[in-house]
Amino acid sequence: MLVVTVIVGRKYAACVMCKNEEANVPLWLERTRDFDYRVVLDTGSTDATIDLFLNAQVDNITFLRKEFNPFKFDEVRNYVKQMVPHDTDWIFYPDMDEEYQAGWRQEMENILSLSPDATRILHKSIHYDHGVGDVGSESGSSIDSKIFKRGHYRWVKPIHEYPEYMSSNDEIIVTTERIVRHHYHVNRLEVEELCYHIARLAVEDDPTDSWCIWFALRDAYKRGNVDDTIFYGEMYLENTRPYTDFRSLAHMFIGQALKRKFGGPNIKARLSFLRSCAENPNNKRAWELYNDDDRKK
């Protein structure tokens, strides 16, 4: 029989940044009730978010207010991280529309009893798009886990930020299917516009950063912005090596933008679709677009 030794006094903190999240505040407070500490940073709410947090009948919340200009997600998360009480052992980052399934705390204790030197936990994620389960890129084993040991990581990248290990000791990552993050996503124009703005500013700051260029390209494509799609697509291709990352999609996005720009099938679009297929022969959508153009030429 496995005997689990629980370290008495191990502390867990939940950190979040928010703006105009009045609909999610009561839910987030309920979902994070098992944490020892909760640190909330409001970055400029104009709805009832601030009042809801200030009037919450709980005694383990540190509520902060600070506006950032320019707004960069990594800087905001790192600011929140610094406000966590010093006796915190582990930090979770559940966004306002997320929760960790009941039982996460006992599973953390189980993991740490077997791997006491662990620095980060990878877990299962379930994504919901407007209330409907979505087996997409966020569902399954999550490599973008937001659970890690205090003092060992910092956030990097102004958009779609991720934790970077900064300790001199070895990084020890443990994967478990018994900790589950539920992400209840609802599209919000305000957030989408902010992310696009941040991505474009980040590219201006560093036009060689393929990470930020990709998100500027993706958001331009989603908005149907033809010229920006072509511009960021070509920039992404210039800054990445063939057969890596999202180059197949970049070619495909450029091809679709070129079709819109010239009012239908054209040789430049067809070449982009063909290059997309060459980068990734398994990109079925690229083949469909190429064959469709071939029939209409």
Protein model, in words:
The protein has 297 residues and is of the alpha/beta class. The protein has 2 domains: 12-185, Alpha-Beta Complex (Spore Coat Polysaccharide Biosynthesis Protein SpsA, Chain A), CATH 3.90.550.10; 189-296, Tetratricopeptide repeat domain (Serine Threonine Protein Phosphatase 5, Tetratricopeptide repeat). Helix content is 40%, strand content 22%. The chain has 10 helices and 12 strands. The chain has helices spanning 25-31, 49-54, 73-82, 104-114, 189-205, 210-222, 226-238, 247-261, 267-279, 284-296; strands spanning 12-18, 37-42, 61-65, 90-92, 98-100, 120-129, 132-134, 140-142, 147-149, 153-156, 162-165, 173-185. The protein has a 5-stranded mixed β-sheet with strand order 3-2-1-4-9. Strands 5, 6, 7, 8 and 12 form a 5-stranded mixed β-sheet that branches. Helix 1 links the parallel strand 1 (12-18) and strand 2. Helix 6 (210-222) runs antiparallel to helix 7 (226-238) and helix 9 runs antiparallel to helix 10 (284-296). The protein is elongated and about 65 Å long.
Write the layout of secondary structure elements.
Elements: E1 12-18, H1 25-31, E2 37-42, H2 49-54, E3 61-65, H3 73-82, E4 90-92, E5 98-100, H4 104-114, E6 120-129, E7 132-134, E8 140-142, E9 147-149, E10 153-156, E11 162-165, E12 173-185, H5 189-205, H6 210-222, H7 226-238, H8 247-261, H9 267-279, H10 284-296
Topology order in helix (H) and strand (E) letters: EHEHEHEEHEEEEEEEHHHHHH
* Distance between the first and last residues' Cα: 70 Å
- What is the architecture of the largest domain at the second tier of CATH? Alpha-Beta Complex
User: CATH topology of the largest domain, which one?
Assistant: Spore Coat Polysaccharide Biosynthesis Protein SpsA, Chain A
Number of domains: 2
Helix amount, in percent? Answer: 25-40%
Number-wise, the strands total 12
Mean pLDDT across all amino acids: 91
Q: Give the low-confidence spans.
A: 1-7, 136-141
Largest sheet: 5 strands, mixed
Class based on secondary structure composition and strand pairing: alpha/beta
Estimate the strand proportion.
15-25%
- Lateral arrangement of strands in the main beta sheet: 3-2-1-4-9
Shape: elongated
* CATH homologous superfamily designation of the largest domain: Spore Coat Polysaccharide Biosynthesis Protein SpsA, Chain A
Rg is 22 Å
